[in-house]
Design brief:
Helices cover about 30% and strands about 0% of the residues. With about 70 residues, it is an all-alpha fold.
Length: about 70
């Protein structure tokens, strides 16, 4: 979920709030990894197209193009 930014311009992971961003931050501090939260370019969760390929988050996860982990929340 996008974080309300008031008068501040937020960027990167600071744009998001909620369970998943909080969990990622806690786990990354505990075991030491870097991450970047990004939105799916086509704004879709995922569905199979007529050609059999998947779009959205599912498509990116299957092809491994941009996704190592995904969440719909």
């Amino acid at each position: 979920m996008y974080r309300p930014n008031g008068s501040d311009v937020l960027s990167g992971n600071d744009r998001f709030e909620g369970f998943v961003p909080d969990l990622l931050q806690a786990v990354s501090k505990k075991i030491g990894f870097r991450y970047e939260i990004s939105l799916v370019p086509d704004s879709k969760f995922g569905g199979r197209a007529n050609n059999g390929r998947w779009n959205g988050m599912i498509g990116q996860l299957i092809t491994g193009v941009r996704v190592d982990f995904m969440s719909s929340s």
